[in-house]
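User: Can you fold this complex?
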Amino acid sequence: MSNTGKPFDLHGIIGAAIFIIIGILSIYYSGEFSPLGSVFPRTIAAAMILLSVVYIVSALLWRKAPAAPAPSSNIRRMLLAVTLLAWAMLLDPLGFLSTSILCYAAVLLIANYDRWTPRSSVLYTAVGICILGGLYGTFRFALQVPFPAGILL
Amino acid sequence: MPGIEYLFAALTPLNLVLAVCGIVAGTVIGALPGLTATMAVAVLVPLTFGMEPSSALIALGAIYTGAIYGGAYAAVLLNTPGTPSAIATTFDGYPMAKRGDGDLAITLSCLASVMGGIVGALFLLMLAPPLAKFALQFGPVEYFWLAIFGLTLISALSEGSIVRGLIGGCIGLLISAIGTAEVGGDIRYTGGLKSLLGGIDVIAAMIGLYCVPVLLDLVATPDPHLKLTHPVAGFRFKEALRISWKAKVNLIRSSLIGTVVGVLPGAGGSIASLVAYAEARRASKHPENFGKGEPNGILATESANNATVGGGFIPTLVLGIPGTPPDAVILGALLVQGIRTGPALFSEQSQIVYTFIYGLLIATLLMLPIGLVIGRYAFKSLVAIPKAVLVPSVAFLTIIGSYSVHNNTHETMQMVVLGLLAWVLGRFGYTASPIVLGLILGGIAESGFVQGYLIGNARGSALSEFLTRPISMAIIAFIVLTLLYPLLRSRLEARREAKP
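Assistant: Here's the predicted assembly.
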């Protein structure tokens, strides 16, 4: 039963269309594999294309408005995403510990909504040192995980 | 039941100390996202080489069972399963924590884990040989269908539509195909990147897919991470006990499901907890509450995943085939100890094996007080931590956890990229759970599929190989039922409402 009064689930339809494209590309590139190596990804990609088509058709026939996301700060999200990417990329060149100290401080600044006071500054720094030092020490010395030293440590 | 002398042998002060230390170590390691039960056992196994075989087994069993329980902490408090077997615990655990019942959720997890662990250990004690024979009936095709069943279940249980869940499962399966193929050795979908030759690591991916979207949403609003509707004054043990007593059928059923699934080599706690969760929801008078913080959901998943510990030891000890990945590490430790697993183990080395099983039972019972105390402080600390400290600390855990999987930064990068992708997919309505399960089950599904395909072709028809074996037919019937059940249920309800 169609419900023409309601808007389409545009996000869902776009998502399904992207998966159709990914499925087609997966099948295309599986042509480079041996028959044994290609049979499984081809089958799964075909299933994904079929399911995506089913989703698009059902979203067009049975319209259901998606829930609107709650108001939130996308700038902080973007800053966090960039910091996490930088954290992962700088581990080898800068060193695990120094990168982690820098990025931990950056994420702390991004996540803080309260006004900075001398008390909170000292407290957050102390807690940060304990957490970073405790976890780094546990992994480095108790679990014998070799961390990259980089140029700084 | 085997003699009481083995029980006394398990109750020596050394064995009790080992059980307590094992439970504490396992719970703490399992609670940290990125450190799984397998890693907990693998990291601590060298400590047991100098011990008596039964004491070593008790220590390893305690670490294992503690780690499976510990996985619930992160699932409940951070919406990130500490171990893969706690994926389904996030469905109701996190909603409970968000509405202020995180302490109750942790206590329920502890009670359910103890119950599941006891049932699994009792089956190991009494029915190990016949259950191991049942496991041998499963061939590649059955494992393929079992993986598809797991994906169907999680698609049906996840938030949103089943079709979207199934698409998510396909994405997970395709991601699992990246890297060097297990069958055939092809290099697939790496885009020329050497770092992808080894494929996408499941643990790193799991941390990213679950943790990073939570972090991105945490920084986006000033709201507190978890609500606290009451002062944290106790364990809420009586309340949890009352809920558990009311749900005794669910607890027993889920524990049995966990034991049986644990017996199947490779299936593991993630499938067991999903099957138990689906069954709990199907049998519930209020299935609409599942996914919104229903205590029965936590009881089902946590009892089932801890029951896989005892269940998984059945094929490990009787057949020498590890039931779950941590069992494989324990099997290696047994070989170092000079113990030969096999059907004769229960008669020729009964002293070792029965002392271990009683030790596992005792360790599981000890998990109740230890788990309650650790759980209470974990909850109290997490609620008290300001967001400005919580977010960078969890971010550091994700970085260090993903790095330490294989001690290289490729996994860390994979974790971050997949996490950002998961947030975007979440905006399109695709949840992380089906993708993660697809990734976990991809290896089992592909090797089962390809082997079944080859065997079927050699016999003349691949299709009949996949569709006509009795156990396969039963699993396919369950898959069809899972897909059609929501439709059938709504039809039945509509008909019932239409009647005067």
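Chain A has a mean pLDDT of 88. The two ends of chain A are 63 Å apart (CA to CA).
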